[in-house]
Amino acid sequence: MRKKFLKVVLAPLVILTIIVYIFIDSWITSGIEYAGEQAIGAKVDIEGLHLHLFPLGIEWDKMEVANPNNTWTNLFETGKITFLMDPGQLLRGKYIINIIEVKDFVLGTKRKTDGALPGLKTSSNNNFTFSNLAENAFKNTVTTTPLFDLAKLKNGFDADSLIRILDLKSFNQIDTLKNKIDRLSGQWKDLQTDMETQKNKVLDIEKQIKAIDPSKLNNLQNLTSAITTVNNAKLTLDEINKFISDKTLSLENNIVSVTGSAGMIKNYVSQDFDRLKNMARLPSINTSGMAQLLVGNEMLKRSKNYLYWVDAARANIKKYSPDPDYTYPPRFSGQDIRYPEEHSYPKFWVKKIVLSGGTDKSASDYIRAKGNAENITSNQQLTGSPMTIALEGTANEQRTLKLGAKIDRRKEISKDEFNVGLYGVPVSDFSLGSSNFLPTKITHADMDTRTNLVLNGNKIDVSIQFDLKSIDLKFQAEPKNIVERLFRQVLQNVKDFNIGLHLWNTNGPFNIAINTNLDEILAQKVSDVVGQEIGRIRSDLKNKFDAVVKKQVDDFNNNYLSKLDQINKQLSDYNALLTDQLNLAEKKKQELLEKQKKGFLEGKLKDFLK
Q1: Which residues contact 83 (CB under 8 A, 6 or more apart)?
Q2: Burial label, 115 (beta-carbon count in 10 A; 0-12, 13-18, 19+)
Q3: Is residue 379 within 8 Å of residue 322, measured between CB atoms?
Q4: Where exactly are the structural domains of the chain?
């Protein structure tokens, strides 16, 4: 029997243990690499991983994380990483790590192999990403290159033709609102029969109440009967009031919604005119227009790169989702009584990561960073603290990095804050202008970048400052018109160039503001040369556009919004009538009660005097 036990049970168990011991390191390595690749979207490579059982911990010799935007470079690579796990909490299915030590943390190193993931499918369903919103905003703001050739503007400009081919969004919105108002009018007509019936009931009740004259009620029986009549009238009025409220609630809500949408028509009109100006290729001769013309395309490229990582952080550092509400069992079936847990732990919690950049001179071209990250967890509500990051790094005693972040998922609306400074970065490919307007490259400069970002739910506010020093420029084409010549005259003498970019939203489309230290100079020079003629053309375009739009807007206001005013007035009249009768009934009731009280006291006094 014992031999049979050894063969059947113990021998397979020993073999299984040996297999697990041999392969467990590679299994853990594959699991960590896979989880990292799903979060980052590029290859994660780990070398020399070892699991230690006594004490329980993991370490590996090297880690590389590829940059998904440039898969032949790494976001970062590390030397040895070690950490210990809490075995008691591990038995409870929780991964609690007090401290992770990361050696030789280096940013932006080159890879020997491509870090792209084969067959990676990117989701195109989620249009609400900040990088998508920014791209759409730039498309609407930094548009086609304006036309500065006055001869072409004068000869080829036909305002009437441009307006005819423009897809006017304001007209589409007006047509939509007209249909909604027609449906509301039909809904109101269906209700009016019921409303008139209730109105007649109210008027009958008014006659009953007014017919009661307290001075003619000479005995207690008549007085009590009158009070009962008034009470019944009040009950009926309350029922009518509820009936009207129930019937008109949906209608009133729809009226409020349509009225709010009608108030937005002027915004659609403004957007239509902006698109018309873009079609006409009329330049904006102001500081904002100069900045967009000079650096708009480059700002789009750089802001999308920054916002990619904001989207990644928002997607992968999710707000804690609590368990579903407890469903109580039927009575007499028993139920579990939950007691509060003291010192509860989340499912996953790294209390602190300590990073050191090391001193390896072979990687002196790359930024070696040191710092720490704290409270990386699956549930910040249990730990009570946000995730924080503080990082500093240098390379070649020239480039420096400073990064601070706070990622807060403790409340219903998440809030993240990032402050990043990157200083002394050599730049050799910074574009100015565009392919259609004075294409220019900054072939050499030292650039400082400071970024401040606040993310509050789906609201974002980003400010980025670019300061370029010791600039060398290369003009890639000869000026085609007088404005390009003016731009070139200003740029060829510039050695320091400053750019400010501000992106923000309020639960919707992005707003963009771009400025440079050359805007006022450029705007003044351009205005002196072509401003007057362009202003005349724009004025002509605006007048013709306003004439076309005004006809549609006036028709909507006079023939459709007036319908809403009529419905609102009739509803107000019904409600006023009902309120007046409720007040009348209450007043009559108080008169009757006062007379009843007075009659009772007089009766008692007579009985006493007898």
Answers
A1: 57, 58, 59, 97, 99, 100, 101, 350
A2: buried
A3: no
A4: 1-36, 166-264+569-605
Q: Which of 485, 493, 497, 491 is nearest to 526 (CA)?
A: 485
Q: How far apart are the first and last CA of the chain?
A: 117
Residue 192, SS3 per DSSP = helix
CA gap 420, 600 in Å, rounded: 85
Cα–Cα dist 280/513, whole Å: 22
Look up residue 14 and give its two tokens: 């020993």
DSSP string, 408-449: E-SSSS-EEEEEEEEEEEEES-EEEEETTEEEEEEEEEEEEE
Burial of 493 (0-12, 13-18, 19+ CB in 10 A): exposed
Residue range 208-255, pLDDT digits in tens:
777 777 777 777 777 777 778 878 877 887 888 887 777 777 778 888
Task: Determine phi and psi for 270, rounding to 5 degrees.
Answer: -60, -40
Burial of 603 (0-12, 13-18, 19+ CB in 10 A): exposed
- Mean per-residue pLDDT, 130-157: 62
CA atoms within 13 A on the CB side of 464: 20
Q: What angle do CA 367, 373, 377 make, to 5 degrees?
A: 140
Which tens digit of pLDDT belongs to each residue from 361-417? 555 678 888 999 999 888 888 888 999 999 998 887 788 989 999 999 888 888 889
Q: Read off the pLDDT of residues 332-353 as tens digits, 9 standing for 90 and up.
A: 555 555 444 456 788 888 899 9
In angstroms, rounded to a whole number, what is the distance separating the alpha carbons of residues 467 and 422? 11
pTM: 0.59
- Name the residue with tokens 């007014």: 210
